[in-house]
Amino acid sequence: MKPVLAIVAAGVVACAFAVPAAAQDLAKTAGKDAKVVLDNTRVRVIELNMAPGDRTGMHSHGDNIVVFVSGGEAEQTMADGTTKAMSRKPGEVVWSGPVTHDTLNKGKTPVRTLVIELKDNGK
């Protein structure tokens, strides 16, 4: 009986990790709010237009740069469930290392950003 329970437990764990992994791409989790405007071997650029109350959905990035075309107020929920408030100004540029998070536009105006995801260039 114990080997069967171990197999079932392993299957449950595998399924729990498979679902989040499949839903980690910002271009997919943000739906209509995200548009890939450039994708090559070095970078991927995603234009993100979020109306007040919109969320990106939980997603992951490797090293990335975010350019805030318009400013606004947001709340990020990290993979561990912690949250942090953000206030960004138009033209602000932010660097981030690898991260998994969801972002909510908490402001009263739309927010437009360019998310520049850096790719490993093999060097």
TrEMBL record:
<feature type="signal peptide">
    <location>
        <begin position="1"/>
        <end position="23"/>
    </location>
</feature>
<dbReference type="InterPro" id="IPR011051">
    <property type="entry name" value="RmlC_Cupin_sf"/>
</dbReference>
<feature type="region of interest" description="Disordered">
    <location>
        <begin position="81"/>
        <end position="106"/>
    </location>
</feature>
<dbReference type="InterPro" id="IPR014710">
    <property type="entry name" value="RmlC-like_jellyroll"/>
</dbReference>
<protein>
    <submittedName>
        <fullName>Cytoplasmic protein</fullName>
    </submittedName>
</protein>
<keyword id="KW-0732">Signal</keyword>
